[in-house]
Here is the input.
Amino acid sequence: MCGIVGYTGADTAKSILTDGLKRLEYRGYDSAGVALERMGDAGSCELDVVRRTGKVAGLESELVARDDASTCGIGHTRWATHGRPTQANAHPHVSCDHRIAVVHNGIIENFAELRVELEERGHRFASETDTEVFAHLIEEAYAREHDLMAAVRAACTRVVGAYGIAVVCADEPGVIAVARKDSPIVVGRGERGSYVASDVIALIDATRDVVVLEDGQFARLSPDGIEYTDAEGACIEPEVTHIDWDIDTAEKGGYPDFMLKEIYEQPRVVRDTLVGRLSPSGELDIDELGLSFEELDLIDRVYVIACGTSYHAGLIAKNLIEGWARIPCEVEAASEFRYRNPIITPSTLVVAVSQSGETADTLAAIRDARIKGAKVFGITNVVGSPVARESDGVIYTKANKEIAVASTKSFIGQVVSLTLLAMLLGQVKGRLTTRQVRMLFHELGDTAAQIQWILDTQVEAVHKAALACRDAHSALFVGRGMGAAISCEGALKLKEVSYLHAEAYAAGEMKHGPIALIDPGFPVIAVTTRSPTYDKVVSNLKECEARGAMIVAIATAGDEDIRAIADHVIYIPPVRDAFSAITATVPLQLLARDVAVLRGCDVDQPRNLAKSVTVE
Ligand code: M6R
Here is the structure.
């Protein structure tokens, strides 16, 4: 959460910073700010700090009046943790003497003690944030060390928590000091200068060769180059990562919003996630597995741990892992799992699912699980992310960068990846033959074309259903089995982008309480695909219809009977129940987005949310 950028070089810093911040807005968008180095009247360097509440566009307008002279600066876009989203709490934060400015992504857990201690020594605080202690700690250390990197290293020894920081100091013009612990930082050198950001997306125009800083590493950026050091100040040579995805990912490419663009990318995500996963002899090939087949054969319990949409991918995986491998599988919110005492043995497999690979609760849960002896397998979209690094094995979801805050294509990548894992466990446990695996694999691949069919033929039907839902106050999503899991994701999507209250319920549970909510016109969105429980779901819908519900059915193409009870029908192609989540989720994503657009919501950046949740 929060995005940081920094640039020092030969070009105008302010436009590089605002362009970078706009690309990082998915990480937070309640306020934004920059600190630019400028020559003061007396010929010495000064820091020009500009901060605004709201999105980066507001900051950019404010900066129009500034000249282009500054060639070094840092910037920040915020998702508030400590302190309200006010101008005073916006970053950068500055030292008392206004000579040092800091941008920070993360949380300083001991900031309250540090603040008291610093105030006792005479420091004056201008914000309610945890970050500001960094500015004052660095100021004190700089007075002793007279060296920015040494001062930043010293400050880092005092703080407890997570941080990715970039720091400028008016007494060392052109230098940006960078440090990282548990919050992402990437650094890169372009032809025209040196760059730092929370995510490569902000610096990919300048370079495709970046260093993903590790915990405890520091970088000193100057117009001439970048030096990397460890916590003791010794020089290190970090690994360089080449970014091979295209900048088109960061552009809307003719779509009105990223969410729609990303929904339309889903056929490609299925295909890319499956590329190279089946050997010519028909064996599943997961080269980053990190666990031998012997180790997998010993697995007798699986926990899938994740948050939000990734948690819903876990609900789908439970059906597959238990169905194909007959291994008991529990799905838990990472934020709950880590605070209880789950039964973990060396034969427990913990599968951590995270688009960003940096969700704080998921990371803490896998660290805990490893300490307790579990094998950990990661499913993530971000190469080299903490989840990938801290897992024994990993499957990358190949969704490419996902920019809309509401996850869509990464969910499809997660479900496809979890399906592969479930098939592999089934094969290793001797419950699926090579022939069955090959057949399932090809059917899984067919879902790419099935999604395309939905996108090509069902948009109008979705739009009519969206018009019918637009003015509702609440909606219920129902289904059974896979349909129940899919409903959870449908309800979350609608809530987060349209601010319409939505709840998912197992259809058979409706009569035990939620049916009391239904009055004439109440929207019930039902997953009624052809499945072993189809007739049961239809019975449950009849109960809703009898009470006046407005029913939207996600049904299998060719099912005309469903029209007798549904007000709106959106079709998906016939598909094996095991794979229905991959297709049936797509109309629900489209529906949520359509309702949000009709209600005038910002679908890509819903209020109060951020893409990467790096706080607990
Ligand atoms: O990056 P992660 O997959 O770990 O993120 C988990 C959730 O924060 C995320 O899925 C969130 O629920 C999305 N906004 C859902 O659209």
Summary: Residues 307-310, 354-356, 359, 362, 405-407, 496, 609, 612-613 surround 5-amino-5-deoxy-1-O-phosphono-D-mannitol (CB under 6 Å). DSSP finds 18 helices and 24 strands in the chain. The chain has three domains: 3-251, 260-453, 458-598. The CA atoms of residues 297 and 429 lie 6 Å apart.
